[in-house]
């Protein structure tokens, strides 16, 4: 045992209140948040408990206003029309042989295996259709899977487990978790795994709401679409929608099929039959195009591989201290994606190239994707422009185009979506899959750079969390292909119209007015929807527990500022490498742990991963679970006492 571990263990064993923390009384651990992250952590907890917990009795309390397992996002109480944007074969909450961790691997079914096996009866009882490995299932199917996993984990835990269907509102100085009902739970350890947090509206959103209210207009700010009240979006009237990602797809579904419309298919063409209750959606965004459809194929042997150019060693060679994202990292990212694309093209489809891979790769190794010599090499070696990769062109497919006529623009964009659907279903364009895998590998390197302080707060917020994450989501985290087929059907039916790129919205003469930099004319409407999730900001979170802990200094989060003094909002909650909370004074809280998307250094925020992927969240769950168990064990091992 190291000296630091001795200090932490000693502080933990120091009683905070009568009857709490003594080895002859039950140990008590409280999890605030009962979603997939807590379930996965408890699965790792159960796996290592026989080795580490000893004979001490244990009480586990899980506090969440939503049922444990799915939590808020994956709850059963939501529309069965809403789908996952992952295939069933790409989801598991169990570790497998790929996961590098100290705890034992306890096999469990991924979602596809569960659907075909133990879940079949459960899904039939819930009136849910089974889904194949390549299907994008309803979120309710995932809710049933997570509920089943929760029940299995509870059976495996050597503890009494109590769930509390309410909100935690306070954590006292003597480690009591206070619930909204007034009930208090003594705790030896507390784990906050709160998932995605609601936040207060920004100043801009507050101003929009006030102006819209004064003008008698309907304004819907950013939010989780399944929780948004859409009743004031009236049938037959124009609605301006800004945002073309997953939030828009959910909105589109709820305002069409959710209002009684349906689809017919004849000779491979999908047609929408309106109910008459739908509004007319004018949708645009910065790019002006929907996210790329998820890839509809797999290629044996293709998987994320270690980066070639954007490596920790390469960043270290750039010098110590803070790096500039645009100058230092962005060129390496471009080169990484370019390499992944062309390596797959040359190896899998050599008939569409004129050079050997070795010759082409040597040019890329010695230059940059924007260098004249590399551009010339691409033009000579890759004759078909559809086989070429230029990140800027992928990112902004409408850049540089202007349409005087809206109908012509809409026809052009519909054709662009149709072409994308065909390409994303065609394994002969497997270079797209290689780029997808490279994006995942790049994200891992960026996460390390951030946690090691190699990027400024401004670069992290503006370039990584905004621009880079936006590009990643656009390319790799789009909707199921069927959803874009439905989008085209709705466009043919006149229910969805395309508003254009760089969509700007204002209020004029008691109407919302939208204009695009790429399309002539304007769109007027009584309603305006911001179809996106709000930007995470811990300092603006509405959760009463977090607000109290931040105010008292028990938790810490930076308020971020750009170089010019402009506020960038709140950062993430601070935690150390063991996920222990860092207080405002910089000290480490020995018995309060933090996990989830609002926590610095927290991995795998979704709570689940692809099978056989060595998911970072699984590795972190295992390490945290084993640390918790060591703290809860009745005594420090004899050999550890001797070593100290």
TrEMBL record:
* Superkingdom field: Bacteria
Residue ranges annotated for the FAD-dependent urate hydroxylase HpyO/Asp monooxygenase CreE-like FAD/NAD(P)-binding domain, each copy included = 30-196
Q: Please name the Pfam families in this protein's record.
A: NAD_binding_9
Classification via InterPro entries = FAD/NAD-bd_sf, HpyO/CreE_NAD-binding, L-asp_N-monooxygenase_NS-form
Q: What is this protein called?
A: FAD-NAD(P)-binding protein
Q: Which organism is it from?
A: Kribbella steppae
